[in-house]
Predict the 3D structure of the following.
Amino acid sequence: MAKNDSSVALDRWEGEGGPDLPGWAARLPADALDETERRVLVALGAALVAEWSTLDTELQRKLFRRAAGSASETALLREQIARFLHDHKDDDAAP
């Protein structure tokens, strides 16, 4: 069975490398953010996911690489992000 374009792109993205997380983000302990900062990041992330399919492919790749990093320890995170974006690509942006 042939893969559709989305599956092929997802497989390719899951195998790509990219820059690691910014230094400050990589060093943050899980409880480092206060509630306001967590809400801001959740809101920004939700807005980004809602608009993901409207973004230019190159920008999508750049954001994906920035979020997922390239270190071998982040392989699971990269897979999780790619799968999440794929699973939510058709979600309605309206609240």
The mean pLDDT is 74. The longest helix spans residues 35-51. Helices lie at 5-15, 23-26, 35-51, 57-68, 75-87. Residues 23 and 29 are 12 Å apart (CA to CA).
